[in-house]
Amino acid sequence: MRNESNNSLTKTFQFKTFEDAMIWMLRCSFDIAVLDHHPEWKNVHNSVEVTLKTRDAGNTVTDKDHKLAELLDAQYKHSQ
C-alpha cells in the first residue's frame, strides 16, 4: 500500500468474490488488534478500500500506518 496523498495512505484491494473480501478483512482484523491501529475501510462487493492515517498525530501518516500497510499487503498476497 503506497498511494500516499492528503495525509493518508490509500489502496483498494480486489478479490474474486465478496466472500474472499470478507475473509481477508477478518484475517486482517487480528493484526489490526495487535497493532491497536484501526483503518478506515469500506467493502463493496469484491473490493475493500482502505485509508490509513494516525488520528493521534494530527491525521497524518506515521510509522504505524506504514507498518499496518505492510501487514495488509502481506495478508493480501497470502490470500491470492
Task: Provide an overview of this structure.
The protein is α+β, with helices and mostly antiparallel strands. It has one domain (3-79): 2-Layer Sandwich (Gyrase A, domain 2), CATH 3.30.1360.20. The protein has helices spanning 18-35, 63-79; strands spanning 3-5, 8-14, 40-44, 47-52. Helix 1 (18-35) packs antiparallel against helix 2 (63-79). The two termini are 16 Å apart. The mean pLDDT is 92.
Write the layout of secondary structure elements.
Blueprint: E1 3-5, E2 8-14, H1 18-35, E3 40-44, E4 47-52, H2 63-79
Antiparallel strand pairs: 1-2, 2-4, 3-4
The name of the CATH superfamily reads Transcriptional coactivator/pterin dehydratase
Kindly provide the radius of gyration, computed on alpha-carbon positions and rounded to a whole number of angstroms: 12 Å
Shape: globular
| Share of residues in strands | 25-35%
What series of H and E elements makes up the topology? Answer: EEHEEH
CATH architecture: 2-Layer Sandwich
Instruction: State the helical fraction.
Output: 40-55%
End-to-end C-alpha gap: 16 Å
- The CATH class label is Alpha Beta
Q: Strand pairing plus helix content: what structural class? A: alpha+beta
Question: Sheet bearing the most strands, described?
Answer: 4 strands, antiparallel
Q: Enumerate the strands of the largest sheet in spatial order, edge to edge or round the barrel.
A: 1-2-4-3
Extract low-pLDDT stretches. Answer: none
| Overall strand count | 4
